[in-house]
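User: quick one, fold this
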Amino acid sequence: MKLFMRLFAISALMLSVLTFSNHVSAEETPDALVRRISQEVIAIAKTDKEIQNGNRQRIMQLVEEKILPHADFERTTALVAGRHWRSATPAQQQRLTEEFRTLMIYTYSGALAQVRNQQIMVKPLRADPTDTEVVVHSEFRQSRGAEPVQVSYRFAQSFDGWKIYDVNVMGVWLVETYKSGFSEEIGRNGIDGLIQTLSERNKKLAVGADVRSSRGLKTS
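Assistant:
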């Protein structure tokens, strides 16, 4: 800032604010985003034969394409790591985010593999237009009179649009679920120890996914 004239700095700031405001006003609201993405994912999961046959690689592809672009994994990872995030190096933060992101991909994929006749109902968003963080509530209704599954999403607004950074399933938030385990592992073995633990877990999940995918392809 010291290298630029004050007038130029103010003009640049005003331009960035206006650009951000125009970008935000044109995007979907968080509840509309949840409704659209959920309906798209469920529709594909119901009709895609490879997904129905348990092809985990195809399921993971669907997660990558439809869900992950709307998630802020760096923020989620930072919240899960808590105070330890600030003491981690940029390289450690990147590795930790990548490993946790991979773990979440396997988690989402496992859930999608169970999709059959579910329907989603997204509740109207009750928030002020100036809010930069909101919670969207929804429920997945299942067949044969089963109790609906309550799912909520925490969104934060960024220049890239609304991003999900936490998910609540049946009253349990994802960040809180992993936070204590991460803290214990870091306390024992440090950030690198946690990264190694997640990496080993993901490798095991990858082997399981490959086995299930090959079985699914054989039955398709």
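User: anything notable?
Assistant: The chain has one domain: 32-219.
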